[in-house]
Amino acid sequence: MKAMEMALNAGQAQDGAARDMSLLIVDDDKPFLNRLARAMEGRGYLVRLADSVQAGIAAVEEAAPAFAVVDLRLGDGNGLDVIARLKEKRPAARGVVLTGYGNI
């Protein structure tokens, strides 16, 4: 959790502007998704959840967050597609990619 928090904090508003704490979490493991959401809400993030690539991209289209935590392998595709769309909509956004696989 500490490494993820450090990655999310890297490069945040350095001009003293108010920090955007919007976070999209995309994972098809619902118990993990909900645990991570609670943990990040406890740290002040405004969390939105998606359980598929399609739902993640739709969430980005609706309101591109400042941060995203995305599972690499989802049932309907690759989580990197969500990150790619996020970077198109909001180039300064930060993303963390997770995977439970030993080899990628």
How would you describe this protein?
Helices cover 39% and strands 23% of the residues. Helix 3 (53-62) packs parallel to helix 4 (80-89). It has a single domain, classed as Response regulator (Rossmann fold, 3-Layer(aba) Sandwich), CATH 3.40.50. With 104 residues, the chain is an alpha/beta fold. The chain has helices at 2-9, 30-42, 53-62, 80-89; strands at residues 22-26, 46-50, 67-71, 73-74, 77-78, 94-98.
Strand content: 15-25%
**What series of H and E elements makes up the topology?**
HEHEHEEEHE
CATH superfamily: Response regulator
Biggest beta-sheet profile:
4 strands, parallel
Unreliable spans are 13-17
Main CATH class:
Alpha Beta
> How much helix, percentage-wise, in residues?
25-40%
| Average pLDDT metric | 88
Tally of extended strands?
Answer: 6
Count of folded domains: 1
Distance between the termini: 21 Å
CATH fold name, please?
Rossmann fold
Order the strands across the largest sheet as they lie in space: 2-1-3-6
Total of helices = 4
